Every structure is written in C-alpha cells, then in structure tokens.
Task: inverse folding
C-alpha cells in the first residue's frame, strides 16, 4: 500500500517551571489545520485508517498537561493526549473517555512520545470517523514507543471507525518507527467500518489477544507494510473477527499462534508478506477462505485446530509454504467446482506437506492448478477427501513425491477418498513417486489413481503392506490413459488393487508403463484385470510372484504392446492371459511350479502375437487358446494338465513339447498351423486332434514319442500338397513310436492325387499299423477308404449318392414334386371358382378340385336338382400369385439342409362345354445349403391343365377326370465345399411331365368327400458339368466331372379331400394323400481324376402330402383363400403357405 503523509492537528506543550508557591497559569493554544491526502488501498477489499482520513477533513482540539503518570477513573469527553517521554497512563474500570467529535480520538499518543505502561480497564470511545486510540501520526514522522500496551476494558463500541491505530513512523534513524514491546488485549477492541487494530510501520515484540477484537466492516487486525511482529498470539479465549478479514498480514511476523477464533465474512487470515511460523490450535474461519496467501511466504504452517473455508481451507496465489503440517481439520464446504481444501494457483509452491489430520472438500481435497507440491505425506491416521478428487494436479502442474502411510496409533487408517478420483493427474502434469504402505487407502468411486493425457510419473508407484488398498469403482483401480509412467507399478507385501468394474489396472490410449508391473507377496491381490489397450505399451516384464494373486486376467488388446515377458512364479496365480485385436506380447509366458495360470487366449491379428515361448512348469491345469501367432514353443514340464487349442488360422511357430507328467490335449483346427512338430518325452498322456497343418521337427518327425506315457491321435487330417497332389505324410518317430495309437485319420481330398491312396504309408508312417483305427476323407462321402491292418491293404471306393450329383438330383426331385403339388392346389383354386356358374357341370368341377369351394354346398345341391341358377355366369378366371416356400432336404447324406424358395405364378382358366381348361407360367428361386454343398437354382416353368365331369350316378355322385402337362427350365448354381476350398458348376436341367387322375364327389349335407387316384410321369435331363475350383482346390487332382443324366420316373397318387361349408362366406377344405414312386432308382456317371465311376441311388419311395384352405367369397368377381401345402418324405420336407385372389368375369 502506498502511504501519503497526512497533515494532522497537534498541540505543543508549553511548560513553565514554578520554583516558588506562586500559581502557575498554563496557557493552551489550539491551532486547526485542514488536511488533504490521496487515496490508497491495502487490498481491493480493505479500507484502512489512512485511506479514510485522506478522504475527510478533521479538526482536533488537544489539551496537554505536564503529567507523565496519570490515572483516569471518571468520565471525560475530551481527547487524552500523550506526549513526551516516561509516560504512564491507566484508565481504571470506572474511567471512561467518550468523544463526540467525529475526528477526535479518546487517547492520542503523539509522535516521539514514549510510554512505559498503557493500561485500560475502562472504556475508550473515539469519534465516528477516527480511532478510539491512536499511536503516532499519519504523516510519516517519528513513531511512538510503548513498553506495554494492555487493554482489559473496552476500546470502541462499534461506532468508532477504528479501534487502535499505530501510525507509521519514518522507519529511518532520524524518523524511527513505532515500537511496542508488549501489546495485549483481554478486553474488547471494536471498530465500525475500519480495522479494529491497524499496525502501520511498527515494530511489535509481542502481540497477545485473549479478548475480543472485532470489526463490523473492515479487518480485525491489519498488519500493514513496514511492520514487524515477533510473536503474534491469539489465545484460547481470544476472538478476532472482521468482515473482510480476521487478520490481514502485509508485513513480517516471526511467530503467529492462534489458539482461539479468527473469523471473517471473507478470509480468516490473508497473508501478503513473510510469516516464519504460523500455528493454528484454535479455529480459523472464513466464509470465503480460512487462510489466503497472496504473494506471501510461510516457512512453517502448522494446523492443530480447525481451518474452515467455504471456498478453500488454504488458498495460495504466487505464494510459498516451505512446510505445511496438518494434524487438525481443514474444511472446504461450498459447492463451487474450483474449490479445494488446499489450493495452489499462479506458481505457488508447498515444499512439504505432512497431513495427520483431516482435509475435506466438496470439490478437491488438495489441488494444484498453478504451481507445485514438493513432498506430500499422509500418515498417522491422516485423511484427505474430495468429491471430484482427493488430490488433484492440474494441467502442466507438479506433485513431487506422495507418501501415504496407513500405520496409526489411534486405530484410524490413513487414506484419501473421493466420489470420483482418489488421485487425479491431468494433462501434462508431473509427479515423481507415489508410495502407499502399511494399510493406507486410496479410494475413488470411479478411479483410485488416474493419469490422463501425457500426465507423467517419473518414478515408481509402490503399493505395499497388509491392508493397503487402491480402490476404484465403475472406472479403474489404477488408470493410465495416455499418460506416462517411467518407473514401474509395484503391488507387494499384502497390498490390494481393486475396482467394482473388475478392472484393477488399465493402461489405455497412448499410455506407457516403462518399468512394467510387479505383483508380489503373500496376500497381495489384484481384484480385477490388468488391461493394456488402445495404443498403450508396457515396456518391461509383468511379474506375478511370491504367492500373489490376480483375481482376473491380463488382457492385451487393440494395438497394445507388452515388450517384456509374463512370469507367474512362487506359488502365485492369475486367471487368464488374453492377447487380442492387434495386440503383441514380445516376451515369453512362464508359469513356474506351484503357480497357477488357468488359460491363455491369443486371437491377435498382429504378426508378432506372442513372440516368445509359453512354458508351464506348474501343477495346475493350463488352457491355451490361440488364433493368432505364437512365435516360440509351448512347453509343459510340470505335473499339471494342459489343454491347447489352435484355431482360426492360428500359428504356433516353435512347436509343442510335453515333458512333464500332466495330461496334454492338443487341438489344431482347420486353417491353423503348428510348426516344428509335437514332441512327447514325459510320462504324460497326450491326445492330439489335428484338422490343420503340423510341420516336422529337425528329425523329420511330425509326432515324436520318447515318453513312457500314452500318445493318442484322436483325429488327424492329412493335408495335400497344393502343387503336386502328394499327401503330407504323418511321420511318427521317437523311441516309443510304436506306442502311438491312431483312432481316426482323415485324408484331405482337395487336389489329392488318387494314386496316393493306394499305400497307407503315404498317409501315415512309423506307427504300428495295428494301432490304426478308421481312415476316411474330408469330403461328403463320395470317396471312401478302408484299411486292413492284417494285410496292410488300403482300398478306395466311390459313392455318387454322396456326391454333388446325388445332392443335385435330390434337390431337383424335391423342388419339382413340391412345385407340382403346389400348382395343383393353386390351379384348382382358380378353376373351381367357376362353381358359381349356373351349370351343374361347373358345380361338380368345383366339388372335385380339392374341395376348395367358394359357394354354399346346399345351394349347389338345390340348384342342381332344380336346374336353377346361382348367379351370373362366369367364363374366365385369372390370378397372379407371389409365394414363399420353406423346405428341408437331405443334400449331404445324413444331414438335413434348410432352404427356401421364392417365386411368382400367373394362371388363367376358362369354362367351356367340354370342360375347364387352364394354363399357367411362373418362375422361382431356390436356395439350399449344407456342410458340403450349396444348391441354388432359378426355374422357369409352364403347364396346361384340364378338368371335366365324366358322369353322375343315380345317387348324385359325380365322377371326374383331371389331366396336366408341364415343363421347366432349371438354371443351376452348384457349389461343392471341401474344408475351406470351393468348386462351382452351372449346368442346366430340364424337367417335363404329364399326369392324370380320376375322382368322385360324395355329398352329405354341407360336407363333400372326394377320393382320388392318379398316375404321373416325370422326366428330366441335366447337362454334363465339371466342377471348377473357385476358392482353393476343392476337387481331386485331375478334376471332377458329372456326365449328362436322364431322369424318367413313374408314380401313382391317392388322396382324400374333405370340404366343409361352414357359412356363406367361410369354407374350408383338407386334403391328405400319398405319392408312390414306381421306379425310385436313378443312375449316374462321373469321373474323379482319371477314374470313371457309375452308380445308382434310391429316391424316396413314398411322399406324403397335406393341403388345407380357408376360402372367403368376397363377391361374385373376387374370391380370397389362405392355403397351406406340405410334403414329407425320408429325405426332407417342404412347407408352402400362400394367400390367393381370383378374379372372374
């Protein structure tokens, strides 16, 4: 604050000595001055004594007497002025000085005066615009000297603007500052708009307040520039209250101790200067901030009491605290999101924080948004709580070392707690070390520890000791999201990292952990997964050791990389290791004796995958699932069982070795690879299932058995060289090769040279042939192998019924039969619509065509008997019908394949005297699929249909005849599938046929029963075709060709239809029947390589069918029906449902 000399009214004592008994007359001259000044401020919030006087005019009438020692015990109304030296002033409890003049003080100590004792037990009340007690003058001249300033009474009653003001002296040799050795208050010092106590350019040895210092509008105590206080003590009964500030420190204090209460509407204490030691044992309270430091320096700040601020407990701006020790309580309790218990801004520094007490905030417990912390130690039951984070380090700020020691003598565990993040290191922030030990807690309901966006930890993160816990909630226990941990994360000696989300440690984004992760020690646990995801990297080993547990897995995913190895040792355990996405683990995976790893899953698409070996030395079962790349070998050396599954194109480059005593199960799926063979040298039982590729070891063996256990090949697919067609022979070697048993061996017939199938040693060698079980191929069964271990002879057979030829014929016949029955139903519905015509012939027709009648049957009968007419004559019927059909057909032998058909049919019928004639045409798409075949085709079909009544019996039964001719063009799209290989062909088929049937209608009231028998011929021709490889090589070497095929089938049919006339606008019909194939055998010829094959196979002898219809006559021109048609035989079934509209005219 800039100070300007303020001209004050003063009196000059004129003293005359009297050496005799003559009366001495004291003459007092009073001179008035007009003072003017410029305006200055202490802070934007505080108006000081000087500022007030610089804006006002004052007159002062002072009266002085030549008296060095004076006691006042009565009421006075004029200023008591102290000047000269050697003064003593005592105001007794009965003494009162009350000033009514606004600008005059109750007591005024003049510049250059010295007083040994000032004791007030009474009441001193100055004017409304000045202080009650003033020391010195505001003009910068010499100060005053007081040995003891002791207030036990009342100074000010809230009406005086200031309580006590000590004005600035010059501070030089010629103009010394004011000096007070002992300033004590056990009474009340009360001001109105200004400070209760103002120290300006003064030197105070001891300040002790045990009473009340209170300002209505200003500061309780304002220690202005140039002042120094050796010891400032607010005792247990002391109260210092202000509106703006309780205590405003703008000059040096050596020791500041508060045992009482310091409070203000804004800041309890504001510091703009140096305080060597500040100790709070009482309460410091600010409705804004309890202690605010603006450019101040505090060497030692100790809180043993309560610091309570709504916006902050301790707030620092451009300030320094060398050591902050809190064993009391620091509270922040409003809802502002920027607030904190302790907050640093604008380059502020706290070199050392020791918290053994409580720091609580509704926002951030300890926060640095501009500056840095040196060392932060939480111990002896210390606690930090923040709603958003307990410890928050803002963008580009610094936290040095953080130590949390849970050990405590009072049973309270040290820890930090948050509704969101326990420790939050934001963008580009820095910290050196985080250590949690001896049962300490770090807890956040989202994350326990959170580093984000280039936040860095340059040293170690060490979590140790029984009961020590880092707890996350829905987030992560320890989250490093695009941060940088240059050291390692160590969880040891009984510590726990946990999260309710089951994510214990997550390294994500571009995060890096250079020093790796170590989890060690008995009772040490990670309750959840270790996750390395995004583009994150772990630059060293991950170790689970010395009895530690990871109750979750290690998950490396996306583009995550782990440069070191993964080691599970010393009786430790981890549930699983998963490497997926494009993740890479550059080192090996080792599980030592007595340790446990349940499973390893590698589905990574990275070329690295797991580049090291996987070794299981433990006694606990290990399951390994790989669909990526494992660069080393998989080895089992312990007594544990091991299950290895290599699938979906996975590669195990180093082979598999089983040298322990535990059982090993190996499954290598289609498209997957195991290089360098499989070696067995222990006492284990080994079971192998291979549908992929297994390479040979350095001795040329596919499987080497040197062990004393048993080795069984449950199933093995022998692959074929794609260039030569030669088989990749399974070579069994080792000292106990004879002990290997082969349950099933399958030859991959893709591009196989059929000559290879003449010798068993081309398929498997080195094994006792008596130990060979079944031998087959991986096709649909068209090529079959049989082996006689006695003679060693291997024979090859061909079965066209199981080939693409058989599948094509079964599909063709199934769809043709389904279509014939469907067309019968649809055309019958169209032709029977003439039932509403006048002739009895048309009525008879209507009753015969599957009973799907559109008129009332009783009306028919009456009309027929009376030769009446039901309605207008109709001669033409037309319909267009889209339809969908679902069907199950046996394409591959013993495999029922599901498919569907979509089509559209258009039909026309006309009524003539000679009968009803119908014509139709349509097309349909059919798609059928199975394991080995896909049969897709598009059919274009057309046909003619005829109906007529032959005669009517005496009892009214009608005998009718039906006939139909049809033809179809079928464009086939055939696919043969062998493993991952495919071959295709697109031959045309042609279908044609005729059928006729006789039937009779039996009429009973509203029911009509119509039995029917028929005879049919169906012919077909399919062009010769060769299968062309489209994906890989599905055909045998030399190709596969099916020759042209002719189909000539005769069949009979019998059926019974029941028609029911329920209401004039509701009719139903149900037809049950069966079709009997007279000659169900079909002959076929084909070629495999250079081998021609002919065969015949059986079609279903019996086909059963059912048709149902619900008929609704809309009017004379439109008729609507809902129909279902189903067909069933031993090779499958077909279901067709459709809705049909007929238009008549």
Result:
């Amino acid at each position: 604050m800039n100070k300007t000399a303020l001209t004050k009214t003063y009196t000059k004592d004129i003293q005359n000595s009297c050496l005799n008994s003559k009366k001495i007359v004291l003459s007092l001259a009073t001179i008035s001055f007009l003072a003017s000044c410029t305006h200055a401020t202490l802070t934007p919030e505080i108006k000081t004594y000087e500022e007030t006087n610089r804006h006002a005019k004052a007159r002062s009438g002072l009266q002085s007497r030549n008296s060095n020692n004076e006691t006042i015990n009565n009421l006075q109304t004029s200023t008591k002025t102290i000047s000269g030296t050697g003064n003593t002033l005592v105001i007794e409890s009965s003494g009162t000085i009350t000033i009514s003049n606004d600008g005059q003080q109750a007591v005024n100590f003049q510049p250059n005066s010295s007083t040994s004792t000032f004791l007030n037990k009474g009441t001193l009340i100055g004017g409304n615009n000045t202080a009650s007690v003033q020391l010195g003058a505001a003009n910068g001249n010499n100060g005053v000297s007081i040995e003891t300033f002791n207030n036990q009474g009342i100074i000010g009653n809230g009406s005086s603007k200031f309580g006590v003001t000590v004005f600035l002296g010059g501070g030089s040799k010629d103009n010394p500052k004011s000096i007070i050795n002992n300033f004590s208050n056990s009474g009340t010092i009360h001001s109105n708009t200004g400070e209760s106590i103002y120290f300006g350019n003064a030197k105070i040895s001891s300040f002790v307040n045990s009473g009340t210092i209170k300002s209505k509008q200003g500061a309780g105590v304002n220690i202005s520039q140039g002042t120094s206080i050796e010891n400032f003590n607010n005792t247990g009964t002391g109260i210092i209250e202000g509106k703006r500030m309780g205590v405003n420190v703008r000059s040096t204090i050596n020791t500041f101790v508060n045992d009482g209460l310091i409070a203000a509407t804004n800041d309890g204490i504001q510091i703009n200067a140096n305080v060597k030691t500040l100790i709070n044992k009482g309460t410091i309270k600010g409705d804004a901030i309890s202690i605010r430091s603006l450019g101040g320096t505090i060497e030692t700040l100790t809180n043993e009491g309560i610091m309570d601020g709504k916006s902050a407990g301790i707030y620092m701006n451009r300030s320094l605290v060398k050591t902050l020790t809190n064993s009391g309580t620091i509270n922040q309790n409003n809802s502002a999101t920027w607030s904190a218990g302790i907050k640093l801004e604008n380059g502020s520094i706290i070199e050392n924080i020791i918290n053994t007490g409580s720091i609580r905030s509704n926002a951030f417990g300890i926060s640095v948004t501009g500056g840095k912390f040196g060392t932060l130690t939480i111990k002896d039951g210390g606690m930090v709580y923040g709603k958003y984070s307990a410890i928050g380090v803002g963008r580009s700020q610094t936290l040095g070392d953080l130590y949390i020691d849970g050990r405590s003598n009072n049973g309270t565990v040290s820890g930090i707690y948050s509704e969101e993040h326990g420790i939050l290191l934001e963008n580009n922030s820095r910290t050196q070390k985080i250590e949690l030990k001896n049962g300490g807690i770090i807890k956040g309901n989202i994350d326990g520890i959170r580093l984000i966006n280039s936040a860095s930890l340059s040293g170690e993160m060490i979590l140790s000791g029984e009961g020590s816990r880092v707890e996350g909630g829905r987030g992560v226990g320890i989250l490093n999201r695009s941060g940088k941990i240059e050291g390692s994360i160590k969880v040891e000696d009984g510590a726990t990292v946990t999260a309710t989300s089951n994510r214990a440690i997550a390294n994500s984004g571009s995060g890096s952990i250079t020093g790796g992760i170590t989890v060690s020690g008995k009772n040490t646990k990670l309750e959840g997964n270790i996750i390395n995801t995004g583009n994150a990297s772990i630059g060293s080993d991950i170790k689970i050791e010395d009895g530690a547990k990871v109750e979750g897995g290690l998950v490396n995913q996306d583009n995550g990389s782990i440069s070191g190895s993964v080691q599970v040792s010393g009786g430790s355990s981890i549930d699983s290791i998963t490497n997926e996405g494009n993740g890479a683990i550059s080192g090996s995976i080792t599980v030592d004796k007595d340790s446990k790893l349940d499973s390893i899953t590698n589905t990574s698409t990275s070329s690295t995958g797991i580049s090291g070996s996987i070794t299981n030395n433990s006694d606990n079962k290990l399951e390994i699932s790989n669909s990526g790349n494992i660069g080393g070998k998989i080895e089992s050396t312990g007594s544990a069982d091991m299950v290895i599954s290599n699938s979906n194109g996975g590669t195990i480059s180093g082979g598999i070795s089983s040298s322990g005593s535990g059982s090993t199960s190996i499954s290598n799926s289609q498209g997957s690879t195991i290089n360098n063979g499989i070696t067995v040298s222990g006492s284990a039982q080994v079971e192998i299932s291979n549908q992929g590729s297994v390479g040979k070891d350095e001795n040329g063996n596919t499987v080497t058995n040197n062990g004393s256990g048993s080795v069984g090949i449950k199933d093995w697919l022998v692959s074929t060289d794609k260039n030569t067609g030669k088989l990749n022979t399974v070579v069994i070697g080792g000292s106990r090769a004879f002990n290997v048993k082969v349950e099933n061996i399958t030859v991959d017939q893709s591009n196989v040279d059929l000559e290879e199938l003449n010798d068993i040693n081309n398929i498997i060698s080195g094994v006792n042939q008596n130990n060979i079980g079944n031998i087959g191929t991986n096709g649909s069964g068209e090529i079959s192998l049989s082996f006689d271990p006695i003679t060693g002879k291997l024979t090859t057979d061909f079965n066209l019924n199981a080939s693409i030829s058989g599948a094509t014929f079964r599909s063709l016949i199934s769809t043709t039969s389904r279509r014939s029955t469907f067309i019968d139903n649809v055309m019958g519905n169209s032709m029977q619509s003439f039932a509403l015509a006048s002739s009895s012939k048309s009525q008879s027709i209507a009753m015969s065509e599957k009973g799907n009648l559109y008129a009332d049957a009783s009306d028919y009968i009456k009309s027929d008997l009376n030769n009446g007419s039901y309605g207008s004559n109709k001669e033409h019927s037309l319909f267009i019908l889209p339809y969908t059909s679902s069907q199950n057909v046996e394409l591959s032998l013993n495999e029922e394949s599901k498919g569907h058909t979509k089509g559209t049919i258009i039909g026309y019928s006309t009524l003539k005297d000679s009968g009803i004639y119908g014509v139709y045409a349509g097309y349909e798409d059919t798609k059928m699929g199975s394991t080995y075949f896909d049969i897709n085709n598009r059919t274009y079909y057309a046909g003619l249909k005829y109906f007529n009544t032959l005669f009517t019996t005496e009892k009214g039964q009608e005998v009718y005849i039906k006939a139909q001719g049809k033809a179809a063009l079928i464009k086939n799209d055939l696919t043969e599938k062998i493993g991952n290989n495919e071959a295709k062909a697109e031959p045309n088929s042609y279908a044609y046929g005729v059928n006729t049937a006789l039937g009779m209608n039996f009429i009973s009231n509203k029911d009509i029963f119509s039995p029917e028998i028929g005879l049919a011929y169906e012919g077909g021709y399919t062009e010769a075709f060769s299968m062309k490889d489209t994906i890989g090589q599905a055909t045998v070497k030399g190709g596969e060709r099916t020759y042209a095929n002719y189909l000539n089938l005769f069949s009979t049919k019998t059926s019974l239809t029941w028609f029911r006339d329920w209401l004039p606008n509701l009719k139903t019909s149900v037809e049950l029947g069966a079709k009997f194939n007279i000659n169900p055998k079909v002959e076929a010829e084909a070629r495999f390589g250079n081998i021609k094959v002919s065969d015949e196979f059986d079609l279903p002898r019996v086909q059963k069918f059912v048709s149902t219809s619900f008929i609704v006559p809309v009017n004379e021109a439109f008729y609507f029906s809902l129909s279902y048609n189903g067909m069933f035989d031993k090779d499958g079934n077909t279901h067709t449902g459709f809705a049909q509209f007929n238009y008549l005219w």
